[in-house]
């Protein structure tokens, strides 16, 4: 870590474990970088999962992985959580002290997830203010804990939090620039090696993939290959790291032009190529769908007790811009329940056009300006003590 000028400020981003906890913060740091008063130093305290290293390392960002593990009451998971908490707390405190010795102000931006919780606790012990970014409604466990001592709460849900015990700063959807579709959809398709004159089905289970979603798509492709072929569909599939080879074989046997990747980057070119998306409903994914106006069918993650992914997608569905299908956790059940509806979407350009028009109306009312609002709030907090800012924007 480099020494900042006298009067400078520094930012720690706390969170990780999935792209959904990293990508919104990337959008905020992009906005900070283009501001007149960016932090002199930004450091990411994240999980030790490979996805964090890939996302942050690919962008040449400074990060430190923590030993933190998800909380669970099962004996093995609880032991791992307890074993990771102390080292993560100590690492967080040490990092904060180091930054405080060099910068006049140190702020923490928490994006939630198990890696954020010990850093927020460390910030409280070291008397560093915490800004909490709330992406899901209801917030996850780590975020709920952080709300108790947060200096500022930023509500980035699509329609505003429905259950929060204290006032939040409503900022709206957060989408990083690289995740917004360019206007030239033909060029987006060509980027992935597709024919620009033919439609593209985008399938995304998020940065870690989605096993039940992948299995549903594999079963659908095997049973309805002729429908995909008749519509000249091409498939762009973000599969995660485990099922990619299997899915590629499914598409090859079915004679479908497909590209299967563990992760898609830049995501904006993926949304720009898509004529229809089938995806999970993490807060970041929903915000990106809205920002890029992609007709979508959401299969929310079915293993969360609070079903927050369903609530994430509900605002788009209520305005007619998307549909929500329950993930029954079984490929056969999903095929029986949702196969006919997916066939209809694939076969009806008019129906896809209706979804797109509705989502464009929603986008005009809910623009993705949350990143700039959070950046401005962080700068405003630091501005009382920061004296070194560059001129211009």
Give the termini distance in whole angstroms. Answer: 25 Å
Q: How many domains comprise the coordinates?
A: 2
Spatial ordering of strands, largest sheet? 3-2-1-4-5-6-7
- Overall mean pLDDT: 91
Going by CATH, the architecture of the largest domain would be: 3-Layer(aba) Sandwich
- The CATH superfamily of the largest domain appears as Glycogen Phosphorylase B
Binned, the helix content reads 40-55%
CATH class of the largest domain reads Alpha Beta
Assembly status: single chain
| Class from helix and strand fractions | alpha/beta
CATH topology grouping of the largest domain: Rossmann fold
SSE string, helices as H and strands as E: EHEHEHEHEHEEHEHHEHEHEHEHEHHH
Q: Percent of residues in beta strands? A: 5-15%
Shape designation? globular
Rg (C-alpha, Å): 21 Å
Let me know the largest β-sheet: 7 strands, parallel
Low-pLDDT sequence parts: none
Give the count of helical stretches: 15
Question: Total strand count, please?
Answer: 13
Structure description:
This protein is an alpha/beta fold. It has 2 domains: 9-174 and 369-382, Glycogen Phosphorylase B (Rossmann fold, 3-Layer(aba) Sandwich), CATH 3.40.50; 179-365, Rossmann fold (3-Layer(aba) Sandwich), CATH 3.40.50. It is 45% helix and 14% strand. The protein contains 15 helices and 13 strands. The protein has helices at residues 23-33, 50-58, 75-100, 116-125, 141-147, 185-191, 211-223, 225-230, 244-254, 267-273, 283-292, 308-318, 331-347, 349-365, 370-382; strands at residues 9-14, 41-46, 63-65, 105-110, 130-134, 152-155, 169-170, 200-204, 234-238, 258-261, 276-279, 296-298, 322-324. The strands form 2 sheets. Strands 3-2-1-4-5-6-7 form a 7-stranded parallel β-sheet, with helices on both faces. A 6-stranded parallel β-sheet has the order 10-9-8-11-12-13, with helices on both faces. β1, α1 (23-33) and β2 form a beta-alpha-beta unit. α7 (211-223) crosses α13 (331-347).
């Amino acid at each position: 870590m480099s020494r900042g000028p006298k009067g400078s400020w520094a930012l720690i981003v706390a969170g990780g474990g999935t792209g959904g906890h990293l990508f919104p913060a990337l959008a905020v740091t992009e906005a900070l970088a283009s501001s007149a008063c960016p932090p002199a130093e930004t450091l990411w305290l994240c999980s030790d999962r490979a996805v964090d290293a890939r996302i942050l390392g690919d962008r040449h960002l400074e990060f430190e992985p923590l030993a933190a593990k998800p909380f669970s009451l099962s004996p093995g998971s609880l032991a791992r959580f307890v074993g990771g908490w102390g080292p993560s707390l100590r690492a967080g405190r040490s990092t904060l002290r180091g930054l405080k010795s060099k910068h006049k102000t140190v702020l923490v931006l928490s994006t939630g997830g198990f890696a954020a919780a010990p850093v927020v606790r460390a910030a409280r012990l070291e008397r560093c203010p915490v800004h909490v970014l709330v992406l899901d409604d209801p917030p996850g466990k780590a975020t709920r804990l952080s709300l108790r001592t947060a200096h500022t709460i930023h509500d980035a849900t699509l329609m505003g939090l429905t259950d929060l015990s204290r006032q939040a700063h409503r900022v709206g959807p957060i989408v990083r620039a690289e995740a917004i579709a360019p206007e030239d959809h033909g060029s987006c398709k060509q980027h992935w090696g597709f024919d620009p004159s033919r439609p593209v089905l985008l399938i995304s289970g998020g940065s870690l993939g989605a096993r039940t979603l992948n299995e549903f798509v594999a079963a659908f492709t095997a049973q309805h290959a002729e429908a995909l072929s008749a519509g000249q569909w091409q498939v762009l599939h973000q599969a995660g790291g485990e099922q990619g080879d299997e899915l590629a074989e499914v598409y090859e046997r079915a004679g479908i032009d497909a590209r299967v990747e563990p992760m898609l980057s830049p995501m904006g070119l993926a949304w720009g190529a898509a004529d229809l998306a089938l995806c999970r409903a993490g807060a970041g994914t929903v915000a990106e769908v809205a920002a890029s106006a992609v007709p979508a069918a959401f299969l929310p993650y079915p293993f969360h007790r609070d079903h927050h992914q369903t609530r994430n997608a509900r605002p788009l569905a209520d305005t007619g811009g998307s549909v929500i299908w329950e993930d029954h956790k079984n490929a056969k059940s999903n095929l029986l329940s949702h196969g006919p509806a997916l066939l209809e979407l694939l076969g009806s350009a008019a129906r896809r056009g209706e979804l797109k028009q509705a989502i464009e109306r929603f986008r005009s009312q809910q623009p993705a300006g949350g990143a700039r609002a959070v950046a401005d709030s962080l700068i405003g907090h630091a501005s009382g003590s920061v004296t070194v800012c560059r001129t211009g924007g």
